[in-house]
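User: I want to check something. If I give you two sequences, will you return the structure for each one separately, not as a complex?

Assistant: Yes, each is folded on its own. Here is the first sequence with its structure:
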Amino acid sequence: MTKLTPLAHVELASYQIVNGFVIVGPCEPQWTTLLNRNAWGGTFYLRPTTLLVCQTYCASVPSCVAVDFNSLDNSCWVHNSADALRPDNMYDQINTNQYRINRVDCSPTTTTTTTPLPAPSPC
């Protein structure tokens, strides 16, 4: 299991800590939800848990592509392979939703501005 290391000092404009994980905004991932759908091949993460903890764990693992969360027993199943996203790997499961992570690129962007040189003055 991968867990983020606690930070001694954080200077960020926006962050929150959920169960020891640091979530930085506004670069938080977005999630696509498939209601009552589940995929084969997930790895059991933790029970009981909450959807937020399940998603936070997935967001902290670079290889995570989706989680299945069962609201009846509060179990979390983590998918680290694109196989979990294939339609032929999905099946109907009442009370279980699949949440697919859409990671946001938080890398800084650099803008280059070019200013034309003034025309040479006549001699």
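And separately, the second sequence with its own structure:
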Amino acid sequence: MNCPVGSHGSVLNSLDPAVHELYDALYQQQNTLDAKWQEFRKLYMHSEERGQLLHRTADYFFGLLKMVLWQDVLLHTAKLIDSEATGGKANLTVRRLPSAVSDPALSSRLASLVQTAKSKCAVAREWRHKQLAHLDLNLSLGTAGTTLTEVDPSIIEDGLASIRAILSELDPTVGLGEPWVSQYGDAERLVRYLEHGVEYEEERRRSRRSRST
């Protein structure tokens, strides 16, 4: 599912069509990554009451989904800040943008933002290398001294913001407006159905109790 491409800012409109093509592909990836993270937040970072609702209705499934979404956001983040090529094969990554533009000042600003993103997303790359794309043997066997950096939501937020900042240098509208995913039926709609289901189940129980007395 492709997300709508944002309206391009004046900086991007003045650049070579090849930069447009690269930007649009990165925009699709960045926007999809943001959408996945927002869905995670709606389900698992909303409130204690929502957590109890998920636990009550399908505890195992929502626990599994939490792990899958969390890991996928980390992996997707690592991909977007990946090196320009791996094993001789070209990668789609924000690291390509500084060399793609001909304006020296813009290229310098992009390069600085890329360096910031590399630092902010370092934990995601660590997880990709040791746990998500590969299984580090020593880590898997619990070898003493082998650990993974703990990840909390603020680290993910900072990483996503750093990637967004790179694209915003070309198009200031990046990150603005309503989440595009909501029109397709997002986590909020699922939660409403779960709430209705719980209410219906409780009403059925009350009805059975009243008939038995």
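Because they were folded independently, the notes below concern the second chain alone. The longest strand covers residues 85-86. The chain has a mean pLDDT of 90.
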